[in-house]
């Protein structure tokens, strides 16, 4: 059966990606340029490019263009408790952290129940944007009970590890429960993660407990769906 023109273009571009002609992070030419080069219509090019986006070879990025995608990052925190920095380092990536918000706050009912707080208890609300090799990867908001961590407000979490700071206070997280959802990115999350609004994201709720089963952490992490996958290791 004769292949459609868009399929031929798709194969050409895929080969250029797999043989290294286009490297991860490279911008491919604009659709109008590709249409002129291959002497086809722009809708034909758009169809071919979308096919490669769907297959994970390309990514459309707001305000940038269409780029060759990086290999997805394997996230192992579904079965291992470790810091984000350590996990990225093990994969040969450099982690960066930007603190977007860090203040004391009155907890919502959801947070109060997660941390088993009383009516007048306060929490620290810490929101961080975590990146890998300069690419935004996850936005995480963490709630921590002030009553156990009265001095935490002086810590710079753009350079310091939260789990290490908890460990220093004999409040190490040694047991976690996690709930996973898949959602569509809202406008704010999309801007922070440099993805399109309504793109799929992994949405994790994490409940962290100390050795005395004190609920010390409640976090909501939003991971890019296009750059991450999650390993689950089960044993009988």
UniProtKB/TrEMBL annotation:
The keyword Transcription regulation applies. The keyword DNA-binding applies. Keywords: DNA-binding, Transcription, Transcription regulation. CDD domains: WHTH_GntR (cd07377). It comes from the Bacteria. Residues 3-71 form the HTH gntR-type domain. This is Transcriptional regulator. It comes from Lactobacillus gallinarum.
